[in-house]
Design a protein that fits this description.
With 128 residues, the protein is mainly α. It has 6 helices and no strands.
């Protein structure tokens, strides 16, 4: 039995038990769940049937998260790093000042790490 089938089976047992004894409090005590959880299961089962009882992660799935910035912004971040060896903070300042592009404080470092450019060259001198 797959984990999804186990989830469905356990939740259906709780819903059937409550229907049989007609007491939600006793059912919840017996199965060790809160009444809020029970009512969420019941609502999901009424709306979607058995597929509604499968556990899912509370956040958005990673495939559905929209990109925060257009691809041109990421290209500019990478260009500034490769050409002028700017750090993440300086890249953010540069984009805001000269291109009127505001990015979050973590966007530049995350982009650089994602593309393997998180370390500056060793022979690069520090800029004043």
């Amino acid at each position: 039995m797959t984990p999804e089938e186990q989830d469905i089976h356990r939740k259906l047992r709780a819903l059937d038990h409550a229907k049989a004894i007609r007491n939600v409090s006793k059912t919840c005590r017996y199965f060790g769940i809160s009444r809020t959880t029970f009512y969420e299961w019941r609502r999901a089962y009424e709306e979607k049937g058995e597929p509604g009882l499968i556990n899912r992660s509370p956040g958005p799935s990673y495939g559905n998260v929209p990109h925060l910035y257009p691809d041109e912004v990421y290209e500019k971040i990478l260009y500034l790093r490769k050409t002028y060896h700017m750090g993440p903070q300086r890249i953010a300042w540069y984009l805001e000042r000269y291109h009127k592009i505001r990015i979050s404080s973590g966007a530049a470092p995350r982009t650089l790490v994602r593309h393997g450019l998180n370390r500056l060259p060793r022979n690069q001198k520090r800029k004043p």
